[in-house]
Amino acid sequence: MNLIRAALFAVFAFMGTLSLSAQQNWLPPAQAIVVINNELEVIAEPPAPAPTTVITSQQQLLEEKAMVGCDGCLQTSVRYHFLKGTLIQIKSGVDTGDAVESVRAQMISGSNNNATLLANIQTAYEFMQNVL
Predict the structure, then answer these.
(1) Can you give the pLDDT of all 132 residues of the chain as single tens digits?
(2) Does 7 map to a domain?
(3) Total tally of structural domains belonging to the chain
(4) Which of 83, 84, 80, 74 shows the shortest CA–CA distance to 120?
């Protein structure tokens, strides 16, 4: 039993080290705001068509945009929402890495385990890691 506890402790200590080293690579909030604003300008999301049904969740909004019929619309929409959510959190005083992780957790919890949406969230998260 002690051997199992020691092994678990070693694994968690290693994961904590990775987590701390990853957090040190994020841009400072002031620089992150500039980068995010630039990325939002690049995306320049076109106005969405008026939905025919009442949208009650973020997932429904993303699915509605995906049904418009363009390739990559879902990925662009997820990236846009990821950037906007991160920007809002950073402007409210949250550190860059914490803001990205928080937005990722919110998006995952709102995905209702939709595999396509989860894959796009992961791609957007990797994009955020590269940009910030």
Answers:
(1) 666 665 555 556 555 555 544 555 899 999 999 999 999 998 875 555 555 555 556 666 666 655 555 667 888 889 999 999 999 999 999 999 999 999 999 999 988 888 889 999 999 999 999 998
(2) no
(3) 1
(4) 74
